[in-house]
Each structure stands twice: as C-alpha cells, then as structure tokens.
User: Fold this.
Amino acid sequence: MGQGNAVTIIPVHAELTTQEAADYLNVSRPYLIRLLEEGKLPFNMVGTHRRVKFSDLAAYRNNAEEERKKVMEELAAQAQELGMGY
Assistant:
C-alpha cells in the first residue's frame, strides 16, 4: 500500500466468478474453465454460472507454487550436476 499498490480484501468463504478467479490466479478465463472442467479446481453452479470458492483458489495457488519451487530446485540440482555453472 505504501508503494501505491492496490490491495483487495476477500473473505475466505467468498465465491468468485470465473473471471475474478482467473484474475486472482493471473491466468486467462478459458484456462481457468479448463481447470474447472478437468476437476483440478472445485466449483459450484449458480444457475448457469460457475462460482469458485476463494479458499479453494488459495489452496490451488499455494500447491502450484510449492510444485514450481520443487521443480526449480530439481532443475538447479541437475544443472549443478552437469556443471552448467548455475
């Protein structure tokens, strides 16, 4: 906030639209829809519209970040083993 960045407060129990969920994950809406249809993220239907719980989004984002860190550590270890100077 002190640097002029926007802050959004979202209740943990909130249900977001697919566009809001995509914005939170910093992905496109079609990609988010694919995640929902593949069962990687749970969602509820409200009429004909999908809604995603913020708590599920936060858990997905945390798990994805942990997976990225793990893969990067493995790549760094392989690079060191191969003497690539990293």
The longest strand covers residues 49-53. Helices lie at 18-25, 29-37, 54-81. The CA atoms of residues 69 and 75 lie 10 Å apart. The chain is about 50% helix and 10% strand.
